[in-house]
Design goal:
elongated; alpha/beta; 4-stranded antiparallel beta sheet
Length: 358
Amino acid sequence: MIFNLFRKFRLHRGSEEYGRVKRIIIYTLLINAAFAILFKYVEAVSWNEAIWQTWQTATTVGYGNRPAETLFGRIITMVLSTVSIAFVGAMFSAVFDYKEYHKTQKKLGYMKNPFKDGYVIFNFPATAIAKNFIEELRAIEKDVGICFVDNNIESLPLEIQEIPNIHFVKGCPLQKSTYLNANINQNKTIIVFPNATNVSSADGATKTTVDLLERFVTDGTRVLFVLVEKANTWMFDDNNATYINADLSVLAIVQECQDPYSAMVVEDLLYNTKGANPATVEINSLDGIKWMDLQLKIMKASVKLNQQCNVIALIQNGKTDACPNPDTVLNKGDMLSIATYSNFSWKEIEREILVLQD
């Protein structure tokens, strides 16, 4: 039981609390082992009986099947009853005290991020944004681990803490320990929010964080960052990171003013908790096909395979084109942004298009 508690609470070997629990357990085991040895030879009982006697005496549930009959046996039983009972109580008290210590350390952000293949968020956004982010993300990825990293808050808001599989790391982005504790290289996506909204200079702090992040991320880890001022994109030219425009809401309002329902269409696409969502697929077997032919054949293949999708844009050389020339030729490695549902299979669509071309 005790060792299961150790694993559950993830005791840190270097901590003072771990040392206290460890010492109490060692002393308790040594005292009980000494009693079992003495009782076996003094009372001339089997090892089984000696150990059983020791356990029952230490836990106050009885005195074994063979209570001590010799004077020395009774003396060591009295000593064990006095000392071991106290140590057993102290042992359980220390373990459960550590549980509370562990909860406090976790709440204050002093525990390492335990999640893998999850998301790490630098700079905690507003509570409403964080809740919406978690809800939308988990509409597709159920219970995925999410870790928030921030140095300007004491702990996460209670309503965020109560959500399962949420972790908090308190740390400054200028300290190496922050990136190690956030377990950057074990997670798939890192997102950097600006440390101040509507302040253009916040992009400078984001640039520093992105530069330091790229020292720790692996090839399989994506880095996304929210840009306050689009004019500052030049600062990130040498970074392998993707920016998200913080003014998307403003752009949506302007577009809605000029084109009714456009904002609603984009909202439906971006919400995981609503209909179809954007998905990016890669051209593999359709090398050399023209854009117009591709769209026509995707529609035919989708009908035959009973799959729903709609092509949104072409992505070539890292640049998006929502309205390509019909004669644009697609090459292997080009990508398509499509609106579809979670059960969509692009590989089946590609195979069916090849059949249609024959």
